[in-house]
Amino acid sequence: MAINPSSSEVFIQGVTLSGRTFRPSDWAERLAGVMSPFRPGGARPGSHLSYSPWCVPTALNGVKCVVVNIALRDHDPMAWDFVMNFARDNELQLVEACLLPDEKP
Predict the structure, then answer these.
(1) pLDDT at 97
(2) What is the pLDDT along the chain (105 residues), one digit of tens a residue?
(3) How many CB atoms lie within 10 A of CB 31?
(4) Domains, the chain
(5) Kind and range of the H or E element at 34?
(6) How far apart (Å, rounded) are the C-alpha atoms in residues 22 and 49?
(7) Are the beta carbons of 93 and 6 closer than 8 angstroms?
(8) Nearest-10 Cα torsion for 57, 4, 85, 30
């Protein structure tokens, strides 16, 4: 998948391209758990006990998602490919996002 250069994150949604809810229900936590060693500064003792800031499970509008930061691609291209291939192989919907500047008061 070609990612827009202005995107800073990709949301892997727990909905297939055909609109079905992806199972198992804990898929996002499992994927993020596998990616926990991939983090700024590399894996450290105990890092497997928390999610990487580059691959975080969440829910948006009731849909399970994994937010994957583009920094993962630069840090470890094979880890990035693993996550993107997971989405492709399971026909999951992807949405790109970019950071918007904070409004000044």
Answers:
(1) 77
(2) 566 656 689 999 999 999 999 999 999 999 999 999 998 877 676 666 789 999 999 998 999 999 999 999 999 999 999 999 999 999 999 998 765 555 655
(3) 20
(4) 9-38+49-97 (3.30.70.2340)
(5) helix 27-34
(6) 25
(7) no
(8) 0
